[in-house]
Each structure stands twice: as structure tokens, then as C-alpha cells.
Specification:
MetI-like fold, mainly alpha, 2 domains, single chain, 284 residues
């Protein structure tokens, strides 16, 4: 072989083993979603006889007809779920980043105590305060309203902690001081300088928050009692057949329709997460 020419390295046995393991884990992760989509095209009898199948059937339109004939209204469910999930996600991400900004940038006397309080609130299970929250919402006549499901997202201790930890090595105080010297106001500095630098963390928390609020079932079920206010998870939870038969095909179809927006949100925001990981791997 001539000198100067580089020879391509063949993957070693260890690398082949790692690649094979990653492929197997990927297939195992995709398998439940694939089975769910396939079962959405099968009849109840086929699902009961053979629970697992990778070949679609011909009962998709029939399952859709059964699904829309029940209390399931995909258009209303999508609209309500998207409104609640989007509003709660915006509140969570923006105000948590603003709180983390105050904890990192400003020097104030009770800063450490306030952060300890935020961490303490994170330890309290949400189910513990749900009864009192429902009584409060009921007394102020705010049931069957989306605001009680959106506004509490402003207080998200886990998101505050994540944003703070990401902001400490990312946002340098010299950048903020330079903006102040140039005459920028505090909110302008936060919105135009801090937020763009936090895109990877914002995208990550936006995915988590959107998925959490989209899949939320307990609070929407006790606060929303009118059918036109139901979210997608509430509608799916009510997909029960009559006394003698449960239409599993229509239930799988409802679950498939519920999961689809989550994939869309992930694929839209995943590029920011990948960009953030790549940026963090670059050494100065």
C-alpha cells in the first residue's frame, strides 16, 4: 500500500456488539407503538385471538366508525388537549427560566433559602394537594374551565432546577453586565440574550412539559365534567363498550390518535436538543 493513504478501519467486534445491542433496544422501544398502530386496524375478535401481530388488518374504518359513535370526538379532544398542553408548556418553560435567571444572575440575601424552598416543594407529591386544589377551584366556580389546568404550570420546581443547572455554566454574568452597560433593560436582556442561549434546555423541558400535560388524566377528569371540555386522555379513558362487549380495536385507534401529537412535538424540538449536546461536547 502506498504511503500517505489512510486505510479505513473496520469496526471491531466490540463495536459490532454495541451496534447490535443498540439496534435491538431500538426495536424493543418501537415494538409497543407498532403493535398499537397495527391493533388499531384489527377487529376485537382478532385482538382477542392473537394479541400480538405485526400485519395490519382491514377494520380501520370500522373501528373509526365505532370510535366516533361513542363519546369520543377527536376534533374536540385535540383542540382542548392542544390548548391546555400548549398553554401549560409556555407557562412552565418561560416562568421557570425566568426564576432560574433570577437565581443565577442576581445577588440577593435569601437566594439560597429560596432555592432550598423550591427543592422542598419538588418533594411534595401532587396527589397530596389535589383534594384541596379541587375544593378551592370548586368554591371559586372555576370548574369546566381550562385556566386551572394551565396557570398552575407557572410553578414547576423540577423545571426551575433543570434550568438553573443548565444556566450556571452557559450564561456568563459578563454578557449580562455588557447588556446593562449598553442600556438594555432587565426583561430585554432576559428575552433577547438569556432565552436564545437556553434553547437546548427549553426544548428539552418543552417536550417533557407537553407530554406530561397532554397525558394528564386525574385533574382534567375531576375538573372537567362537560363533554365539550374533555381532553384526549379523558375521552380515551371513557372508551368502554356495552355490558357484553368491549371494542378493543376502537380503543387502540383512540390511543393511536392520542399519541400522534407527541411524536410531532418531539421531532420538531429534537434538533435543538441534539444541537445543545453537540455544543456541550465542544472544548474551548
Amino acid at each position: 500500500m502506498e504511503k500517505g493513504k489512510t486505510q479505513k478501519k473496520r469496526p471491531s467486534g466490540v463495536m459490532l456488539l454495541v451496534y447490535g445491542l443498540c439496534i435491538v433496544l431500538t426495536l424493543l422501544s418501537i415494538m409497543p407503538f407498532l403493535i398499537m398502530v397495527v391493533n388499531a386496524t384489527r377487529s376485537t375478535t382478532e385482538i382477542q385471538q392473537h394479541a400480538i401481530s405485526l400485519l395490519p388488518s382491514k377494520y380501520l374504518l370500522n373501528n373509526l366508525k365505532i370510535l366516533t359513535g361513542k363519546s369520543f370526538n377527536p376534533i374536540v379532544g385535540f383542540k382542548n388537549s392542544i390548548l391546555i398542553s400548549t398553554g401549560a408548556t409556555i407557562c412552565t418553560v418561560y416562568f421557570s427560566t425566568l426564576t432560574a435567571y433570577a437565581l443565577v444572575v442576581y445577588e440577593w440575601k435569601m437566594r439560597k433559602a429560596f432555592f432550598a424552598f423550591v427543592m422542598g416543594v419538588m418533594m411534595i407529591p401532587s396527589q397530596l394537594v389535589s383534594i384541596g386544589f379541587y375544593q378551592f377551584i370548586y368554591k371559586i366556580h372555576m370548574t369546566n374551565n381550562f385556566l386551572p389546568l394551565i396557570l398552575p404550570a407557572v410553578a414547576a420546581p423540577a423545571c426551575v432546577f433543570f434550568m438553573r443547572q443548565f444556566m450556571i455554566p452557559t450564561l456568563h454574568i459578563d454578557v449580562v453586565n455588557s447588556a446593562r452597560i449598553d442600556g438594555a433593560r432587565e426583561f430585554y436582556t432576559f428575552n433577547k440574550i438569556a432565552l436564545p442561549m437556553m434553547k437546548p434546555a427549553i426544548a428539552t423541558q418543552a417536550i417533557f412539559s407537553f407530554v406530561t400535560n397532554w397525558n394528564s388524566l386525574f385533574l382534567p377528569m375531576i375538573l372537567l365534567t362537560k363533554q365539550e371540555k374533555y381532553t384526549m386522555p379523558v375521552m380515551v379513558s371513557l372508551l368502554k363498550g356495552d355490558v357484553y362487549k368491549t371494542e378493543y380495536g376502537s380503543i387502540y385507534l383512540g390511543l393511536t390518535l392520542t399519541v400522534l401529537p407527541l411524536f410531532v412535538v418531539y421531532f420538531l424540538l429534537s434538533k435543538y436538543i441534539i444541537a445543545g449536546v453537540a455544543l456541550g461536547g465542544v472544548k474551548e
